[in-house]
Amino acid sequence: xxxxxxxxxxxxxxxxxxxxxxxxxxxxxxxxxxxxxxxxxxxxxxxxxxxxxxxxxxxxxxxxxxxxxxxxxxxxxxxxxxxxxxxxxxxxxxxxxxxxxxxxxxxxxxxxxxxxxxxxxxxxxxxxxxxxxxxxxxxxxxxxxxxxxxxxxxxxxxxxxxxxxxxxxxxxxxxxxxxxxxxxxxxxxxxxxxxxxxxxxxxxxxxxxxxxxxxxxxxxxxxxxxxxxxxxxxxxxxxxxxxxxxxxxxxxxxxxxxxxxxxxxxxxxxxxxxxxxxx
Length: 279
Ligand code: PDD
Description:
It comes from Puniceibacterium antarcticum. Its cofactor is pyridoxal 5'-phosphate. By secondary structure, the protein is α+β, with helices and mostly antiparallel strands. The protein has eight helices and 15 strands. The protein has helices at residues 22-26, 44-57, 66-79, 124-128, 151-162, 206-217, 229-234, 265-278; strands spanning 2-5, 8-11, 29-37, 40-41, 85-92, 110-117, 130-136, 167-172, 175-179, 183-187, 193-195, 222-224, 237-242, 246-253, 256-257. The strands form two sheets. Strands 7, 8, 9, 10, 11, 12, 13, 14 and 15 form a nine-stranded mixed sheet that branches. Helix 5 (151-162) links the parallel strand 7 and strand 8 (167-172). Helix 6 (206-217) crosses helix 8 (265-278). It binds N-(5'-phosphopyridoxyl)-D-alanine (PDD).
């Protein structure tokens, strides 16, 4: 692969970052994952906007303007002849002596981008649906910022796996927050789409926004509010959304089968429509 590091295009083995980088020492970095399908960027505007927001919330400076950022995304796709997969972008506060105090503002940030090939269209999970385990949300309190602090989501996913589930749905104060790396949604028995309202408790999913818009345009009633694990267990359908998974049905929550245990009709429709509008 050809990767991007601070303005340079390099073979992946030649791209080196200092052990003093604050991403490495402090988790002081943000990231974005943008999906590529048919060589095209999906929902790019949303990912670029969220990247800028994450940066500004942490006082990080993105060294590329809008045109240069878009150009870098197109260039990494072209250089890697990418058809289907993802672009990972990470911005850290740069290299500095280990210190809890941020380094001076003029410290050059570290910006890296790489690609990962993945057949995003043919996703077995989308056909069978996934099972989720409900686990406490023990992440920090600013989940609206897409930081690289992914240890707890990773641990939660491992715990879910050890319980025989595919993923975790996290809950806090009696309400579901998110999946380990995706947005959680349910369809009630009377056909309303319930998804948590945006706050510091969860990431503002870019796919979430697109799918809500799509659902709205198809006359599906949407309730943006927190829902409980009990509501999830009683739901007619459940699903997750994320950049590279689009819409994936959830067919089991802990030991409770959702609907008839097969991907729900509305969920499948939203997946097909999402893919169709992106192509
Ligand atoms: N994860 N919530 C969390 C905690 C996430 O990590 C993600 C994305 C989402 C969905 O956001 P979007 O629809 O914008 O991808 C929600 C990415 C894909 C990842 O970490 O790999």
